[in-house]
Amino acid sequence: MPTVQLYALSTCPWCRKAKQFFSDNGVPFECTDVDLLSPEAQEEVSDRVYKLTGTLQYPVAIIGDAVVTGYRPEKYVALLGLRLG
After folding, report:
1. Are 31 and 6 in contact (CB under 8 A)?
2. What is the pLDDT of residues 53-73, one digit of tens each?
3. How many other β-carbons are positioned within 10 Å of the β-carbon of residue 26?
4. What is the pLDDT, as a whole number, of residue 83?
5. What is the pLDDT of residue 1?
6. What pLDDT sits at residue 44?
7. Whose C-alpha in 35, 42, 57, 84 is 20 to 30 A from the C-alpha of 9?
8. How far, CA to CA in Å, does 41 sit from each of 6, 32, 52, 81?
9. Could you give the CA distance from residue 81 to residue 35 in angstroms, rounded to a whole number?
10. How many CB atoms lie within 10 A of CB 23?
């Protein structure tokens, strides 16, 4: 299974849905809540996210080499090779 890195905001409902999706499906993931970081770390992570996506919309999931912006469970399933149901 590819590694999953999630960049999120602690107050964002779509970010919470993304976290819940990975948890509910037993997918190990690392999550960074950008808004809870120090100002310097926020800037660094925001720069990284912007370089990856061209935007600062969250959540951003990096699944293997693929970058998925927004809550897109159908893309998560395809990239992870999950079988749901």
Report:
1. yes
2. 999 999 999 999 999 999 999
3. 8
4. 80
5. 75
6. 96
7. 84
8. 15, 11, 17, 32
9. 31
10. 12
Domain presence at residue 85 = no
- Show the domain range for 23: 4-80
Place of tokens 């970058």: 67
Q: How many Å apart are CA 77 and CA 11, to the nearest integer?
A: 24
**Total domains in the fold of the chain:** 1
Give the residues of the chain that fall short of pLDDT 70: 85
C-alpha 67: how far from chain center: 9
pLDDT the model gives residue 85: 60
Which CATH number goes with the domain that contains 34? 3.40.30.10
Q: Based on C-alpha coordinates, what's the Rg of the chain? A: 12
| Residue among 37, 28, 49 at smallest CA distance from 10 | 37
